[in-house]
Amino acid sequence: MNDASARRLPESAPGRVYVWELPVRVTHWAIFLSVVVLCVTGTYIGRPFSAGGATTDRFVMGIMKVVHFYAAIVFDVALAARIGWMFFGNRYACWDQFIPLTRERWRGFVKTTKFYCFLRHSFPETIGLNPMLGLLFVGIFALELLMAATGFALYSVLAPIGSPMRVFRFLVPILGGLQDARWTHHVGMWLLITLVLAHIIAVVVISVAQRSDMIGSIFSGYKLIVDRQDGERDNG
Q1: What residues pair up with 225 in beta bridges, in sequence order?
Q2: What are residue 15's DSSP bridge partners?
Q3: What pLDDT was estimated at residue 231?
Q4: Residues 111-121: pLDDT tens digits?
């Protein structure tokens, strides 16, 4: 099956469907990889563990801060691009795939919840994000925005005179002061790690339950839709 026929494939038919567009895949991996780098470098900045002398400690800390700063730039740009693509991408990238506003999406949410609670034998198949995973992403995006805000606030205090980053100093009192902003940034990192792990587990479960190669789809963009005989396909 070529790419053109896959794009025209009806959702009720089995086959490969082009779900995740290139901007979705690029921003997804840019955010994930930058979060990994930010967590590693941020942990060191908050609690240095270098075994060297004073000069070595300063050298390692300087490298960690520079890497943290550039990873934060990648993170912020990718996050802004992904949120923007919710209004310009295809139906699977649209913002209404994250918030269940329709009756159909709420029914899908209930069915998915029943599956995870062992009250339903089969997983309700969806082509894009299932409603539960969509809500999980709402939490992830909200936390990522909070991490970006606290990061801007913390850096604005250290930014040199003339730096455009000093404009974000107004966030410091809004976040309760510098110490509260630092505490929120630290706790937010662990919450984000928890949500990312929950996302990975959910994707593995969905990929196995649906036999849809959901893991591979975030690389290729194409999701395998299996022809089911039980009549339980839920589009949305």
Answers
A1: 15
A2: 225
A3: 40
A4: 888 887 878 87
Measuring CA to CA, which residue among 96, 98, 104, 193 is closest to residue 144? 193
Q: How far is the C-alpha of 187 from the C-alpha of 142, rounded, in Å?
A: 14
Q: Nearest to residue 204, comparing CAs of 140, 84, 144, 116? A: 116
204: Cβ contacts below 8 Å, ≥ 6 apart: 215
| 31-to-34, 77, 159, 180 alpha-carbon distances in Å | 5, 9, 24, 25
Type and span of the H or E element at 225: strand 222-225
- DSSP secondary-structure letter at 18? E
The HSE-up count of residue 131 (CA atoms within 13 Å, CB side) is 22
Tokens of 206: 């969905």
Which token pair is 69?
A: 């700063």
Asked if pLDDT for residue 168 goes beyond 90, the answer is yes
Is there a contact between 137 and 130 (Cβ–Cβ < 8 Å)? Answer: no
- Decide which of 210 and 2 is more confident: 210
Question: Which positions ≥6 away from 198 have C-beta within 8 Å?
Answer: 136
Q: How far is Cα 21 from Cα 28, in angstroms, rounded to an integer?
A: 11
**Which pLDDT score, from 0 to 100, does residue 8 have?**
42
Mean pLDDT confidence for 115-129: 80
Sign of CA dihedral 27, 236, 112, 138: positive
* Contact status, residue 108 vs residue 234, Cβ threshold 8 Å: yes
- Three-state SS for 84? helix
